[in-house]
Amino acid sequence: MCGIVGYVGGAECAPILLDGLRRLEYRGYDSAGTAIFDGQRIGVLRAVGKLRNLEKAVDEAKPAGTTGIGHTRWATHGRPSEVNAHPHLVGDVAVVHNGIIENHLALRARLSAAGATIQSDTDTELVAHLIDSHVRAGEGLEGAVRAALRELHGAYALAVLSAREPERLVVAKNASPLVIGLGDGETYCGSDIPALLPYTRDMVFLEDGEMAVLERGGARITRLDGTLVEREPRYIDWSPVMAEKAGFKHFMLKEIFEQPRAMEDTLRGRLDRERGDINELEIGLDASAAAAVRRVYLLACGTSYHAAMTGRYFIERLARVPATVEIASEFRGRSPVVGEGDLVIAVSQSGETLDTLVAAKEAKANGAKVLAIANVIGSAIPRMADGAFYTHAGPEIGVASTKCFTTQLANLLMVAIWLANRRGHLDADATRALVEDMARLPHLMRDTLMSTRQLVANIAKRYNDARDVLFLGRGPSFPIALEGALKLKEISYVHAEGYAAGEMKHGPIALIDAAVPVLVLCPKDAWYERTLGNLEEARAREAQVIAIATEGDEAARNVSHDLVEIPSVREELTPFLTVLPLQLYAYYVADFKGTDVDQPRNLAKTVTVE
Ligand code: F6R
Questions:
Q1: Does residue 519 surpass a pLDDT of 70?
Q2: Coil, strand, or helix at residue 342?
Q3: Whose CA is nearest to atom 7 of ligand 1?
């Protein structure tokens, strides 16, 4: 997830671009840059790190010009570095890009064979080369961009500036967001509304498969086949605070609702629906190494630990490899029996959690192969690992992890399917069926969020003064019960416990009385009947029972006070959906209590201390 901005008009554009980038910094902040036409040529300024480094460079260079583009980067291809920062300038063409070009390897090979000198590791530079080659072949900028787009597969929001036609920008969109702002004698573009809001409230939203030519007088939108699109601007009446959070009250709520998009980005280029297979993943293993894996250790902390617990279930069930999940701080220093033949999967949103880092280093020193599943490109854990398999959730601002949890689950399930297939435990048909079902996740998550939001808010309001809350689940729902309890504890400060439902009778059942809400995860899976039994036991002890169940489950409806329904899916996919109402429950309880949802007391987003 990156942020892009563009301006064409009568004003000096450097301050406008920087201001837009500041408002987009939440989308990525590992490097930033601008490209501005100075009357003769395009000047590019780029800086690694936070935006203030670019601001300093702009302050020193003082680029003048009234047409320009800007970018704040969240690395997906290539480490954060100046050469990988956008804009990418090739010949007379400068490009900024948000998204992932799936056919980048084929494009790179083709362009290199044709003699292009490619400087960076990014997919975006390849787009600049493509457009430049069409410009040099005599096409105008619009035609050159259109021709290049026909050769791209994947997600993009692009803004393109050419020194040959400096009075316009060409923008295009597929799967990544792009908004056009219409001013008085000036036209803007940006990744989202907040970037443009101080300048105009008249906005046009580009749709997938569309491009536009922006000039001072406005925007002309066409489809890729050249047909003209007429679209009325919309007036946006958001306040500045609403704008920063895209209209949501808190970053956490925004991130909860971003999960379908984050899932789409994470699955893109990895699931191959045509072949019905998982592509070779960036996990540092080939098929023979997959066959040689003796045992898997999953190491993580907090929410990532709950994802790792679910990962153990995926790996054992599908790939039939013995898997152990460990709290990283417990694993390190206890001389664990780990070494050659073992695959250690270190799961960490930040990629910087010290306990996970040290535990993974110890395992590596003993001869194990280490695979990092992380969200922050180039962070410490992926750097020390043998393979880095990134989630593409984009920056997570809320301290309580939501979208990174579900995308971690996706990466873990993809690793499990890949291992299972390469080790001969999943045949082609079973692999295809799993790939097909996983590809539906963004859509299923969107449906679940929309259909449960109001109901869960009502339930949370009713129980928001409960002092203790229990979460129960079995099998893949057990880690989700733990995660539901952790979310509630950390943002609402309510005491909550997650239990394996089968453990109830061994102690926790003593806690239950009429004042205790019990959230029971009982999707239709192999554990369903037994979990329903636990639900009835809780009900018999007068608990307030809230069931998270498969849609149409009348038995669960009859024995619970409240029923939250999720779509019917195969067992491996239930955690992706059952966790959504639990995130919402925690959020609404905290919001009713008025706690600091995005920055709960005593917590930090990245834990680099022991
Ligand atoms: C809870 C939460 C934390 C983190 C934990 C590990 O919502 O976010 O429990 O999961 O601190 O952090 P990472 O994943 O960055 O290693």
A1: yes
A2: strand
A3: 400
Q: Does 28 have pLDDT greater than 90?
A: no
Ligand 1 site residues, Cβ closer than 6 angstroms: 301-304, 348-350, 353, 356, 400-401, 490, 606-607
The Cα–Cα gap between 541 and 525 comes to: 25
Region of residue 269 (left: phi > 0; alpha: psi -120 to 50; beta: else):
left
Q: Distance (Å, rounded) from C-alpha 356 to C-alpha 329? A: 7
Q: Does residue 356 contact residue 328 with C-beta atoms inside 8 Å?
A: yes
pLDDT value, residue 608: 63
605 catalytic per annotation: yes
Average model confidence (pLDDT) across the chain: 94
Nearest CA to ligand 1 atom 5: 302
438 CA to centre of ligand 1 in angstroms? 24
Token pair recorded at residue 16: 């406008």
- Which are the contacts of 369, defined by CB distance < 8 A and separation ≥ 6? 284, 285, 289, 342, 343, 344, 386, 387
State pLDDT tens for residues 259-284: 999 999 999 989 999 999 988 788 88
Q: Domain 3-244 belongs to what architecture?
A: 4-Layer Sandwich (3.60)
**What atom in ligand 1 is closest to the CA of residue 305?**
10
Q: Quick check: 514 and 527 in contact, CB under 8 A?
A: no
Q: Do domains 3-244 and 255-439 have the same CATH topology?
A: no
CATH of range 443-593; options 3.40.390.10, 3.40.50.1240, 3.40.50.10490, 3.30.420.40: 3.40.50.10490
What is the C-alpha separation between 497 and 477, in angstroms, rounded?
14
The CA 366 to ligand 1 mean position distance, Å, reads 26
Predicted local confidence at residue 552, as pLDDT: 97
Q: What is the pLDDT of residue 242?
A: 63
Is 2 noted as a catalytic residue in this protein? yes
Radius of gyration over alpha carbons of the chain, in Å? 25
How far apart, in whole angstroms, are the C-alpha atoms of residue 432 and residue 445? 21
Give the residue-averaged pLDDT of 419-438. 96
Torsion-angle region of 457 (φ positive above 0: left; ψ -120 to 50: alpha; else: beta): alpha
pTM summary value: 0.79
The domain covering 255-439 belongs, at the CATH homologous superfamily level, to Glucose-6-phosphate isomerase like protein; domain 1 (3.40.50.10490)
Task: Note the residue count of the chain.
Answer: 610
For residue range 199-228, what is the model confidence (pLDDT) as tens digits?
999 999 898 999 999 999 999 999 999 999
